[in-house]
């Protein structure tokens, strides 16, 4: 199947060429877009690659030492829910593997598989954590993320938001709880090596994902995935979009105007 969708993809980009005017999807990305629309609506963020909905995930030398970047490679990219800091983070994450000769693994873990005590669970439901953003998001200088909880929603089957490389507790007790939770996540996690032509979709409310460090094959055969962020209900982000037709969620909206509160 890999050659069917990826055989004509060409060389791995060395920069984010999806930002260029007239960028044309390859066959694998077209199929990825079609499958994705069966799951949700692809959205973009003005703070992330100028609002482009399709993002190429490739190693780049200027980011190889950054531990919380999909383009980094020398360090583990720790467990995170996609855009965890954002009020309107996506409901699902979709990936297509165009090339992965390095056999870098994608790790994942569901909150439903993480074993935690009721006491730890209660601590994670408290708004005692600050969840920062990854370098892919270019936010205004001085941006300060609000305090938030790691777990939210229904006590019996909670959602989670976390970014291990950029999350901290506001006090020692919260930090201890976070450290215990990260240990439990690592214990319960699974891993998969995506092959050329594989499509991989995760529920971004229940599942966190990660990637181990790897040594890129710099050049035309480097690792190459493409990503879509999907929402089940684009109407929830209406306050943060320029008009109802736009799929791009803007930076400069006033969260106090949102009738939906924090997600």
Note down, in words, how this protein is organized.
With 263 residues, the chain is α+β, with helices and mostly antiparallel strands. The protein is 16% helix and 24% strand. The protein is built from 4 helices and 15 strands. The strands form 4 sheets. Strands 1, 2, 4, 12, 14 and 15 form a 6-stranded mixed β-sheet that branches. It has a 4-stranded antiparallel β-sheet with strand order 3-13-5-11, with helices on one face.
Task: Write the SSE topology.
Layout (H helix, E strand, L loop, with lengths): L1 H5 L20 H13 L1 E5 L9 E3 L19 E4 L11 E8 L5 E6 L7 H7 L4 E3 L15 E2 L2 E2 L6 E2 L6 E3 L2 H17 L1 E4 L5 E5 L3 E5 L12 E8 L16 E2 L14
Parallel strand pairs: 1-15
Antiparallel strand pairs: 1-14, 2-14, 3-13, 4-12, 4-14, 5-11, 5-13, 6-7, 6-10, 8-9
Pick out its properties.
4-stranded antiparallel beta sheet, Double-stranded beta-helix, 15 strands, globular, 6-stranded mixed beta sheet, alpha+beta, 263 residues
Low-confidence stretches: 257-263
CATH architecture: 4-Layer Sandwich
What is the mean pLDDT?
88
In terms of structural class, how would the helical and strand content be classed? alpha+beta
| CATH C-level class | Alpha Beta
Q: What order do the SSEs take from the amino end to the carboxyl end, as H and E?
A: HHEEEEEHEEEEEHEEEEE
Q: What's the alpha carbon Rg, rounded to whole Å?
A: 18 Å
Q: How would you name the oligomeric state of the polypeptide chains in this document?
A: single chain
What does the main sheet amount to?
6 strands, mixed
> Might you state the CATH topology name?
Double-stranded beta-helix
- The total count of strands amounts to 15
Distance between the termini: 38 Å
Question: What's the helical proportion of residues?
Answer: 10-25%
Can you identify the CATH superfamily? Clavaminate synthase-like
